[in-house]
């Protein structure tokens, strides 16, 4: 050992609070709403590096939309967005209860993150392809995908559109711009980049968008995808949903303490935006900016959506074992539904009474879909035909499949 040098030690990042502690967000520094500049879409990534460390915000504490990122949406569009978020939350609540009632084996809620998928699902066309994780159910709901069909897939019943081939919440709906969810973390990012490259190679006009959690940015797939996106200027939007927590480890384990996740784009020569993910208008504006860049052959954009996972990671998780019990309630960027609601009220385009009615209507929509789906069957009560195991894999069955089907009797 060299003289006069300290003994080496290994740093293991720790979150700011554990069970029993008071929530502490004093380490977070946010720009005031409206303070971050909006660069021209043609701005070189090098010249907008600071946007990887700032936080794009539109809605202030009084519910006003301020600053250059205000997308100036008409009230009807915002009402549609609010209702879609309310419906998404109502759907989550019912399906979480369904798991507790033994009607399905697994479920994952997106509580607190509804603005992300809903806003982005409303902006992009169904013909563009989304490569989601398991918390973008709002993408389907915002686009009007039948709730009963989502439930059929969750229950793996006889009308399951995926025919029992996926975990309960791993939807697939090509006609709604929703690529099949993969259970392997990170794989959707290179898939999205590859799809976008193919679209450009064919001279098409469709773009791709993907979502990845903060923890999955530590996967090699994420970095491989950024290389291809940069080199080939793929028309793709790459979202990092930083919701602070994986199933039991916090975002610092993936490198979120020393820098931002948006900053990972800088080393690849990609533009980066860091956005308040609980601000529907900020998400909308940032996505609109990245969409224009992609559609005008200026390449990919990385967007870090700064939010908070308010619910358990999944029905297999108990967050009270690793974080303060009331941490979600104290999240300084608030609740996305409440914030958009307040903005519409400030504009005179909504009211508390309308909010109550919208919530009741959402519950009724979900209840009606639940009755329709459960009449077909919940987990184990009905299931897709066994013969579907042998279908839609090969264009022409070879002798092995024919023999296997004969043995099964289908």
TrEMBL record:
GO terms for biological process: branched-chain amino acid catabolic process. Its EC number is 1.2.4.4. It is an enzyme of class 1 (oxidoreductase). Belongs to the BCKDHA family. InterPro entries: Alpha-ketoacid_DH_E1_comp (IPR050771), DH_E1 (IPR001017), Oxoisoval_DH_suAlpha_N_dom (IPR022593), THDP-binding (IPR029061). Residues 1-23, 311-331 are annotated as: Disordered. The branched-chain alpha-keto dehydrogenase complex catalyzes the overall conversion of alpha-keto acids to acyl-CoA and CO(2). It contains multiple copies of three enzymatic components: branched-chain alpha-keto acid decarboxylase (E1), lipoamide acyltransferase (E2) and lipoamide dehydrogenase (E3). This is 2-oxoisovalerate dehydrogenase subunit alpha. SUPFAM superfamilies: Thiamin diphosphate-binding fold (THDP-binding). It comes from the Bacteria. Its cofactor is thiamine diphosphate. Pfam families: E1_dh, OxoDH_E1alpha_N. Residues 315-331 have a biased composition (Basic and acidic residues). It comes from Brevundimonas bullata. Residues 83-376 form the Dehydrogenase E1 component domain. The lineage of its organism: Bacteria, Pseudomonadati, Pseudomonadota, Alphaproteobacteria, Caulobacterales.
């Amino acid at each position: 050992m060299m003289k006069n040098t300290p003994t080496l030690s290994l740093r293991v990042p720790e979150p700011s609070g554990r069970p029993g502690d008071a929530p502490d967000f004093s380490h977070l520094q946010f720009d005031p709403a409206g303070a971050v500049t909006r660069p021209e879409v043609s701005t070189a990534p090098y010249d907008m590096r600071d946007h990887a460390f700032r936080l794009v915000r539109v809605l202030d504490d009084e519910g006003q939309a301020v600053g250059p990122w205000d997308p100036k949406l008409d009230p009807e569009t915002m009402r549609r967005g609010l209702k879609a978020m309310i419906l998404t939350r109502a759907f989550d609540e019912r399906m979480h209860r369904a798991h507790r009632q033994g009607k399905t084996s697994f479920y994952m809620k997106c509580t607190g993150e509804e603005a992300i998928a809903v806003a982005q699902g409303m902006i992009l066309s169904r013909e563009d392809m989304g490569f989601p994780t398991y918390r973008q159910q709002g993408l389907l709901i915002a686009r009007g995908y039948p709730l009963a069909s989502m439930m059929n897939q969750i229950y793996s019943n006889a009308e399951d559109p995926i025919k029992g081939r996926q975990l309960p919440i791993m939807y697939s709906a090509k006609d709604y711009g929703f690529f099949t969810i993969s259970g392997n973390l990170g794989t959707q990012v290179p898939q999205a980049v590859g799809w976008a490259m193919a679209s450009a190679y064919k001279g098409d006009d469709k773009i791709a968008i993907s979502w990845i959690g903060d923890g999955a940015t530590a996967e090699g797939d994420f970095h491989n995808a950024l290389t291809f996106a940069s080199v080939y200027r793929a028309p793709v939007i790459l979202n990092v949903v930083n919701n602070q927590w994986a199933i039991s480890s916090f975002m610092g384990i993936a490198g979120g303490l020393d820098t931002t996740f948006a900053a990972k784009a800088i080393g690849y020569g990609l533009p980066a935006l860091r956005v308040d993910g609980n601000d529907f208008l900020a998400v909308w504006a940032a996505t609109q900016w990245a969409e224009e860049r992609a559609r005008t052959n200026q390449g990919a954009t990385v967007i870090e959506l700064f939010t908070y996972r308010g619910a358990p990671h999944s029905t297999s998780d108990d967050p009270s074992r690793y974080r303060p019990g009331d941490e979600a309630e104290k999240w300084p960027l608030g609740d996305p539904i409440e914030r958009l609601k307040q903005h519409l009220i400030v504009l005179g385009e909504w009211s508390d009474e309308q909010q109550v009615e919208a919530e009741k209507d959402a519950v009724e929509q979900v209840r009606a879909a639940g009755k329709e789906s459960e009449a077909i069957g919940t987990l184990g009560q009905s299931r897709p035909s066994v013969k579907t195991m042998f279908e839609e894999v090969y264009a022409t069955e070879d002798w092995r499949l024919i023999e296997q089907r004969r043995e099964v009797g289908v």
